[in-house]
Amino acid sequence: MPEILERRSLRKKDVLRKILDSTRKYYGAFSDEYVKLYDSWLRSEGAFSDPEYRIGYNNVAKILAGLVEDGHIIVDIGCGVGVWTANMAKSGANVTGLDHSIEALSKQREKSKDENVRSKVFVILGDGFYAPFRDDVFDGATLNWVLSHIPVKENLNFLKEVERILRENAWLMISDSYWRGQEGGKEQVQTRRTNNGTFEVYKYYYTTEEIRNLLKASFCEVVNLETTPYEILCVARK
Ligand SMILES: C[S@@+](CC[C@H](N)C(=O)[O-])C[C@H]1O[C@@H](n2cnc3c(N)ncnc32)[C@H](O)[C@@H]1O
Known about the structure:
By secondary structure, the chain is an alpha/beta fold. 36% of the residues lie in helices and 29% in strands. Helix 5 links the parallel strand 3 and strand 4. The longest helix has 17 residues.
């Protein structure tokens, strides 16, 4: 699990851009550990020996298996170390992984090579707010544990950019942590430790109603919205 040393509410005097830049650097510094975290999750080891976590992984895999079709063109926004990028490519999709952390993307390339899907996976270093694609091109998009790192005041613009690049009737899958009264408040700054240093990380915890309203306002029909003990899972269509 990421090591969280402190959680505090976002303060008025905080410079949000600085915290977001630190969040991006955190994902670079944490990328080695993130790969290991997923390995232990898959094997239900260590902190993930709780069967709930194993179920959490299986839930995401199951939802994606029901959405991804052979030949689909998918964008995995905030793809990180590429576990879900590779998973969708293995189902026959052509998947573009977009992330603003170059270190995470280099792990994504390794992952797609290890999973023998290198030819089905593309890598783009960029910011999800300015996706470098034409309108209406993708059959599906994923935001797995990404939305909570997008400043809440800018979330509508972020989702409108996702909407722009999806074709009519395309799907969007969101998974993330959700608001359960976590210490530090809904909008918070976490101090997280990695093997490569300590970073401030922006985090916003959504309720299911907030996600539903956000999706309604941005573009789509919410097809499914559910929570597990630690994760919110949502599927919507343009
Ligand atoms: C919690 S990780 C999730 C990674 C991956 N989706 C997964 O489920 O394993 C969040 C990822 O989103 C990326 N990210 C956050 N904000 C972003 C933005 N505005 N543009 C591109 N990537 C972003 C981070 O760099 C990080 O790799």
